[in-house]
Structures are given as C-alpha cells and as structure tokens.
Amino acid sequence: MLKDTIFERLTALLDANNARYRVMEHATGGRSEEVAKIRGTLLGQGAKGLVCHVKRNGYRQYILAVLPADQQADLATLAKHVGGSRASLASPKEVSELTHCVFGAIPPFSFHPDLKLIADPLLFERYDELAFNAGSLERSIILNTEDYRHIAKPDLVTFRKTDN
Description:
There is one protein chain. Helix content is 26%, strand content 30%. By secondary structure, the chain is α/β, with parallel strands linked by helices. The strands form 2 sheets. Strands 4-2-3-5-8 form a 5-stranded mixed beta sheet. Strands 1-7-6 form a 3-stranded antiparallel beta sheet. β2 (47-56) and β3 (59-68) form a beta hairpin. The longest helix has 11 residues, at 6-16.
C-alpha cells in the first residue's frame, strides 16, 4: 500500500509546482451531475478519469483516460491511438491496484508506472478550472486548468464520442 494517501500525494505534487487550487470537503455524490451541483461547478469542468485496458500485441496497456464529465468516451478510438485492437474499462480490482482509489474517486493524475495518462484536448478548451474527486468520494480539488496540463503532462488524444 502507498505510504501516503492519494490525497496527500496530490496536494504535495500541486504544492511543489505552485499550483492554483482549492480543496473542498463535501457529501458523497452519486453521478457527475450531482457532484458538480455539490461543488458549485459546471458539469463540463469535471475531469472524469476512466481506467481502461487496451489489448495490444499480446499484452495489456493500462490507460487513465481523462475527459470532461459532460462527455462520453469512445474506447475504440482510444485503443487505436495506442495501437491496440480494443479497449475496455478495467475491473474494480485493477482500478484499486493501479490507482489506490475506488470508481468515482480517481483523480486525473497517474502515480503508477504502468498507468499511461491520456487526456482529451476538450478538457483544456472551455474552463479555467477543473474539478475532480481527490482519491475520495467526499473530497474534491478544484485546480487551474493550465496548472493541471503543466503538472500532469498527459498525452492529448481526442477520444470523446462525437456526432458525425
């Protein structure tokens, strides 16, 4: 198990990089819409983290795919980006092992060497701040968007579903 909690690792990383953020303690929300209301943020400001695995050349590539909470992921596009044949959501056990978090509490940062961080560019185009659960369903961080991009350095891949 990690020596520090995910929240402690996050705040230490943000502090070390002089990030502009604030912490919010709140009641557990169910869906993204409910949590946005509790936080007082817009749904699209939510940074939704999905732990996926992509089958690729006989092995599994794990990805933390981050997109705005008002969008849906296109896992086939995600798989193609990393040269895989298909992608699917990781099991609760895999999520726990890779993030030390439960579904819904995964921050948009990877602290595991086998978990590749990918973000949809739309995350950086609409809002000055992003909001996300910080390793707990009862605690959120609201972070400056550019600070997130600078600190996390995710690979940018458009993988949200679009109407064609």
